[in-house]
Amino acid sequence: MPRRPSRPAQPKSAAQVDKGRLHPRNRHQGRYDFPALIESSPELAQFVILNPYGKQSIDFANPAAVKVFNRALLKQHYGIAHWDIPADYLCPPIPGRADYLHYLADLLAEDCAGTIPRGPRVRALDIGVGANCIYPLLGQREYGWRFLGADIATSAIASAQAIVQANRLDTDIELRRQDDPRHIFQGLLQAGERFDLSLCNPPFHASAAEASSGSKRKWRNLGKLDPKRKLPVLNFGGQAAELWCQGGEAAFVARLIRESAQYAEQVLWFSSLVSKASNLPGVQAALQQAGALSVRTVNMAQGQKQSRFVAWTFLTPEQRQAWHRTRGQ
Predict the structure, then answer these.
(1) Residue 236 DSSP class
(2) pTM, two decimal places
(3) Which of 104, 125, 105 has its CA nearest to residue 115?
(4) Contact 272, 61 (CB under 8 A)
(5) b/e map 9-44, b = 16+ CB within 10 Å
(6) What is the mean pLDDT, run by run of 10 residues, along the chain of 329 residues?
(7) Domain 88-326 is in which class?
């Protein structure tokens, strides 16, 4: 059985987060402890390099290195003993994924007198769980929440299911395929099901060519665009449904918002990452048109990388508080 992860230090409030810093409860503050990671996962040693500052790191342009690094982080910090994904699937940056969950926990706490609801009575829906199953793994380990992970790809569901079963998390993480890619909630959610949260990392490119161009731009910014070196076409990997869709991020989130209005009483807080700040005005307009009663835009950062998510609900503050009382939180 995997060892239970150690608890992080006493948390600060989200208001104390410095610009460019991870959420205070995020376990990945500061530099990575490579000696500790290697001690826990010896396979990582072969991928460790020295960066230009003489510090230990890995080559983030090497998909094999990123996968082993993620596996080591999950094992050391979250007690996930078994984690693997098929070649060419999205290999997520774990600190940023954890931040999304911590800020969602803060959102739930707003209606619970500042106390974060924990345990299996809290149920979250991960739209586009992917082969990596990262949000359910982190959310279950950090807060004890139960998850439903949904995806349109049979191969992604199969990979996520293998991870869940290998870590004996079947009672905490359920996986379900969305059979109709034209819909998000419709045909997926069952009558009477209720979720405290829905989260989503939408495909943010409009085409494969745009995704490839974005990766080349990233390698150039990192100083890795060496014509003598063969780099992966897509940074961190990724299949079509993970990285692009018709209309890109803006179209996907707009569809998510439209459908969410039909399930206003089954989900307390809907949310989605929005990678491009230029898409925010359109998102806000779609939310207003859908009739969302409360909207939050939460900025996140890791070093120079800026990100954000938008959360919305169709319930009044009184209805949200009653929701928590009914669920015994």
Answers:
(1) T
(2) 0.84
(3) 105
(4) no
(5) eebeebeebeeebbbbbbbbeeebebeebbebbeeb
(6) 43 47 94 94 95 91 92 97 90 94 97 95 97 97 98 95 98 97 94 96 62 47 52 48 63 96 97 94 97 97 86 97 83
(7) alpha beta
